[in-house]
Amino acid sequence: MTNKKGDKDFRVFVKFDKEMTEPIELKALLFDKKKRLLERTFVRNEEAVFKTKVRTKDDVRLLIVPNSRGAERETDYDLLQTKYKAYKPIIRFTNDQQFEILPIPELFLPFWFTRKCRVAGNVSKFFDINGFAEKKGLCHMRVHICEVDRIQWLIPRIPDDIISRIPDLVLNPELPIPVPVLPDPPIPDPVFTNLLPTIADIDTVFSASDIPKPIAAVSAEDITSRLQNTRQSIAANTDVLSILQTRNPRLIKNTILANFELFHSIFCFVPWLWPYFYRCDELAVVYTDANGDFDTNIFYSIFGDHPDLYFWVEAFIDDQWTTVYRPSIPCHTYWQYPCGTEVNITISDPRVRWECTEELCGELVWVKTIGHGTSVSHIQQNSTTGLPIQGKLLNRQGLTDTHEPKGNYRRPFGAGLYFILQFSNELPSDKYTYYRWSYRKIKNADLSNASGTTERLGNLVQKQYSFTYVDMDGHFHFDYDKVTLGPVDVGAGIGLYKIPTASPKDTPFNVPQNDAQWDQNTRSISFDSALDGDGLYEFTLELFDSAGNKINTIPNELFQVPDYNTFVPSVNAPSVNLVNSGINTCSAFKMVMRIDNSKTTAEIAKIKVDGVEKNPTCCGFVPYKGTSDITVTFKAYHPQNFADFNFRIQKGTCNDAVQTSKTNAKGMVNGNANGYTRNIFSMYTKTFTPADLLGICTSEGKAAFAEHLYVNALATNGNHEINSYDSSALAAFALEPK
Fold it and tell me: What distance in Å separates the CA atoms of residue 395 and residue 383, rounded to the nearest whole number?
């Protein structure tokens, strides 16, 4: 069907010159006169129907292209023709003023049929296991597989001023090429993270040893040597050298196109070139299995170039997908990837834990972390002071050393707490079917005894699982859903939570998706730390049988905690974490945690001269005599001293190290620091001579200063510091002689 001008929809028939023996899924893309994409639609029943209203054939341009992941995302009119071999029909009117296009020529068919390529690999990380580096596969990692673009499709769009800078990279050997800093852990590239390279035209099959290895394994000296050798190779090629010496952008573009493999060895290390020479399209997103393996198929044109692939990886951290491996693209592409060859990706991001690569055998409950970042083994369970801090003792019970050097227990917990458990593959059983957390406040904020009663934690707990589904176009996708663990009442057991089964498909969850699976970690409960105020809390984890009866004779070794130094392997929970622990059994797991949601206070007082405030107005001028004492005072406060402070005095634009060494101070808010004396009201005071403050400005006799105070609360939610408890202050003053 065609349609007349001015109709509501724009539609055309899409046919082939030659009858097709097998179908090809097509998409039609409509552009305006300036090649801006207006709409894309599937070709259904040999017809493309657009919602865009078209008045005249000269208003729009039309492209027809096979449906593929890359073409589906591409919006560049010219690139769709060069890379994806899109058919550009001429839109014309029939005698009765209807739109129509001619059939697709047979010559497009060879480019539109595809070949399958198997892409397989493994994602792993080295872990310190009992002093030995052990490589472990990482499960449920999300791997993005990207295909590079051909340089001939990109080079016409590279500005001449960029091309004109390239000869100096070769002709001027004194021009330094900085060796890129290789991040550890890898971080995303800058704004051009979606750009990639290509090199060769030939569909060559390489052996596994020919695949380029990650540049992170190459030293800075090796990189420098490689650059020097490449410069020499280009200089030795008289044809290439003579064209570079012309500095003619058009000629240089052509010689780069013909010798890109040679130039790539330099371009790989020149970041300002990357956005122009390197670009990619995402072909697939896959997930690793329990061993860290992934395996999928991609497709490429029979007459196109062999796939050049780049990989980047995400992990599910703190309830969101987070990039944990994304090295610089130009130096980490697998050129002309040999289909089926395993790609080994090694993660170094410290946020990635080995938590779900192996199942726990037997009947075990591993009490892992607070949040996803604080091991329960790093919470001090005993009442102990440890070493003094700034001359003051601190009771460390219930505090953690997360974000600190090991053993420096000084951080309490604040808002946003949840507890992570892992259950072994033989749970649940008839004996151990449910769990329940409870809490009791045992000390007040000042560590005086509290008369808190035991309260059950009864908030809704749901466990997330992943599954795949097929959309109406036959494409696979991942999605997530949740099941409810509790609270439920079973017999005498009130407010219980179901121990997750090995699979969400098992009873009692019975989810409908056949391939459903979940992370072995369970976010078992959350806790509102503001419920009963700040203080020391005891949390208890109990187990119940299938009838809701509490189990009081639990083997001690059933409860596991992380190894303090290595996290894995798990270890038997120590007796301090067990309730009613006998020779072989206990009745529950317990742990104490110090809760503190208090905010800090930061204040800067006015300057005093000889004990009297001399800048009573807001203008800040401080008159002084040569013999005057000048006193600086600020307040850095936290009710229980769980905070650090940093106080700085900056003089004008001077970098006066002698002055700042005297006037600046930092430390915990519990005691004196760098000559500043702290009183019982958390006011810090220090007296200076005019010369102490003026320093290198003493000859001028006057100077302007800025005072900045930041008070950083130490409370954590298990994942990171809680910055909302912090405070800061800013003030200024100027010394002027009387």
Answer: 6
